[in-house]
Write a structure and sequence with these properties.
By secondary structure, the protein is α+β, with helices and mostly antiparallel strands. The protein has helices at 35-38, 63-89, and strands spanning 14-18, 25-29, 45-47, 54-56, 121-123, 133-135, 143-144, 151-152. It is elongated and about 80 Å long.
Length: 154
């Protein structure tokens, strides 16, 4: 089963992320930010701008994104299960017994869509400037490059 879930971007096409190590939030650009970025190989891991620890690219979900994704997936999964149960029992009758679906599973409502504010300031590392990030306005140096983890000053 494949359930598409859309996460919001801010007006600069940045997606909110959360470090799986230090839990601080920042944003990275969704998709290539420049022609140079388009020519780069896909990353296997990224480095946290704050603590500098690397993690696989699929480990950066915020708590809100995980809860929202589960909230969208659960109703779709329960509805699919209910449909399958209805199909499985359809026609299961003989002269000795009759099986009939008399109810349905309770399908929860989907959560309200997430919104993404236009907060944070854009920062580009000197070593991999084609992979900009956004950090909170009150962030102090050093910041680590998302691509290689090299520390740099703001």
């Amino acid at each position: 089963m494949n359930i598409p879930v859309s996460l919001p971007l801010d007006n600069d096409d940045f997606l909110r992320r959360e470090c799986p190590n230090c839990a601080r939030q920042f944003k990275w650009h969704d998709g290539p930010a420049s022609e140079e970025a388009e020519n780069q190989p896909p990353a296997d891991a990224y480095y946290c701008p704050f603590c500098g620890v690397a993690a696989a690219t699929d480990q950066w979900w915020t708590t809100e994104q995980v809860e929202y994704t589960q909230g969208v997936a659960m109703p779709a999964a329960i509805q699919a299960l209910d449909d399958e149960l209805g199909s499985a029992f359809k026609g299961m009758s003989s002269k000795n017994f009759n099986i009939k679906q008399t109810g349905h599973l309770d399908v929860p409502d989907e959560p309200d869509p997430l919104t993404e504010p236009d907060d944070m300031m854009i920062v580009a590392s000197p070593c991999h400037g084609w992979e900009p990030i956004k950090v909170p306005e009150d962030t102090t140096s050093p910041i680590h490059c998302l691509v290689c983890g090299q520390a740099f000053a703001l």
